[in-house]
Design goal:
The complex is a heterodimer of chains A (419) and B (115). Chain A is mostly helical and 419 residues long. Among the domains of chain A are: 109 residues, no CATH class; 105 residues, no CATH class. Chain A is built from 21 helices and no strands. The radius of gyration of chain A is 26 Å and the shape is elongated. Chain B has a single domain, classed as Dimeric alpha+beta barrel (Alpha-Beta Plaits, 2-Layer Sandwich). Chain B is 25% helix and 31% strand. Chain B contains 2 helices and 6 strands; from the N terminus they run E-H-E-E-E-E-H-E. The longest helix of chain B has 20 residues. Chain B is globular, with a radius of gyration of 15 Å. Classes of the chains: A mainly alpha (419), B alpha+beta (115). At the A-B interface, helix 16 and helix 17 of A face helix 1 of B.
Amino acid sequence: MSILFMANGELIPHLFRTEYRKIVSVLCKRFGFDQIEIAEDIASDTFLTASQTWGLKGIPQNPTAWLYNVARNKAASHLRRDYLFEKKIARELKNNAADIQDTPFGDIHEIDLSPQNINDSQLQMMFAICHPSISPEAQIGLSLRILCGFGIEEIANAFLISKVIVNKRLFRAKEKLREEKIKIELPGPPEIDERLAPVLTTIYLLFNEGYYSVSQNKTLRKDLCLEAMRLCTMLIENNATDKPPVNALLALMCFHASRFEARMDKNGELILYEEQDTSLWNPDLISKGGYFLSHSATGNTISKYHLEAGIAYWNTQKDDTKEKWENILQLYNQLLQIEYSPIAALNRTYALSKTTGKKEAITEAEKLNLSDNHFYFALLGELYTDLDNQKAKQHLRQAIMLAKTQVDRQAIQKKIDRL
Amino acid sequence: MDEFLLLMRLDIITKEAQPSPEQMQVYMKMYQDWVGGIAAQNKFIGGTGLSMEGKVVKSNNVITDGPFAEIKESIAGFIMVKAKDFEEATGFAKDCPILQGEGNSVEVRKINVKS
């Protein structure tokens, strides 16, 4: 990898990010999961050849076409070697090579790198990788590697784990896909909704990995978010997968991403929602979110993505109105009925304090039974502020004791200092 | 933790007893806040309001319109909750907003779970 980055400055890393995944998807689709490593090797090899050749002869006029050409040739000679080997073995062992000899030579080695096949292959690959038989972490790892063209080191950085562990995880996931004989294909209409669910989960986890990641590398985090949005966009661009929850998920990610520039300072430290410079919120992403949210409003099921997108929409509204908080409260009420999570329970209680008042919210908060969660005490601290500052401080100190990261501790300390 | 069924009973028939659309909105909000509060404690299992229509099939194969034994005791909705005992389940029921209407009731039943 390091040679690639040095040889042609920005171009090859950029192409690696956008084209590697396409080549791997097409080749893997052609070879099957059995030979996924070969597909990856050919793709990597193609970029190595590019960096060597372009370094000497300059960048070709159409670099992408050049890459496809080289990949196509490398794949064809791999298939030819495979084919000859098979033919020889078949002759020796079975003494019956008629069926192989009859196959027209040209066709079977042809690799289809047309835009249509690239898109189809990537989409099918997405469903194969997000197969329920492999663990969510492995799905995300494989998605980053194969669908997003991330390097092993980048994946390791994003998860704060070692490269050895990333490699192990990817290896096991590929083994599993082979064992289960997962086909690289789009599920049929009857199963599409069911199979879409883990695909959307992976995309959402990928996005969250970037949005809430422990990594301080801002560029990497933003890339994770953008990749998640790109994968979701691919689903929307295909009629078979352009479903309401897919649109809702993209809306949700657009709304969140609109605050990307405002929620982190130069050092990669988190700036709380209330303290963000709202002029840094991205209006294009907000209106894009609105577009996909309105497109998601078809059919008769409300997914958790619809509800979360609704909440995210209201969070893009700067004014602290009663209407805003009433809507947020109702959306959390519904979300919790579909899927409980401690953070949704806490956020619902916060919304309740904004609509009904702090005292009511404190009564409700005390029922939540989340006394191992630092956000719980941070919320109580917030609710007691101005009602009983002594109690507020107690809760905030408890929150600091339970907080897991320095960033969280600092944010809570700021609140104590203000009391 | 046991599971309980909360059956909400009220008059959904008598015309005069029915809320206006505006009142209905207020009631729905109260209902959602109540269920949301239970769900926020991770104690909501499922359940919902029911539509007014219904059929009753009786033992002699007679089918009648309306599921209503006694008008005052029609089932308007049900939810299932997790609770450690009857006391906690009854506590949830007490907060149910339909109880603000006179004559309405919430029946609390423990669900037998096969072990």
